[in-house]
Amino acid sequence: MSLMSERLVVIGGDAAGMSAASQARRLKGPGELEIVAFERGHFSSYSACGIPYWVGGDVSARGELIARSPEEHRARDIDLRMRTEVTEIDVPGQRVRSRDLASGAEAWTGFDKLVIATGARPLRPPLPGIDAPGVHGCRPSATVRRCWTRCPVRRGGGRSSSAPGTSGWRWPRPCSTGATR
Questions:
Q1: Can you give the pTM of this predicted structure?
Q2: Residue-wise burial string across 134-169, b where 16 or more C-beta atoms lie within 10 A, e elsewhere
Q3: Catalytic residue set
């Protein structure tokens, strides 16, 4: 970071965090703003809203849910640090502590501006049957695959899925080929 530029730190490398980072890059070039983003997961810029369609088979591959790869962000001068978790925020000191999940190495990174876009955990409403076998909350990647393998297609029934959207819940939909959509 040069003496004249600012640094934006983004915690969370999924859709919201990387949208913020990309918008910041559109507004200010690399000489004006350094952007560092931390993502503790394996994927960046994925479409969580598309998970029910992946489970349902409308989206054939997980990669179709990823809008931009880490390499594409880096090519736009966004320093995206994958599999790196922010463990502490020092607001008065304007810095965050991060830990590389592969090596365990920790480091402090200073910031002038901070965006926290870490997402949320699925809400499990107090509904009858919410803890029944076959009812799962699904998040990206391995969790979705686990849901997929635990929910076999049944003749005349099929899988069903629902997911929180930006304006509420998507209602369960049939998720097996040949079922009425």
A1: 0.72
A2: eebebbbeeebeebbeebeeeeeebbbbebeeeeee
A3: 49
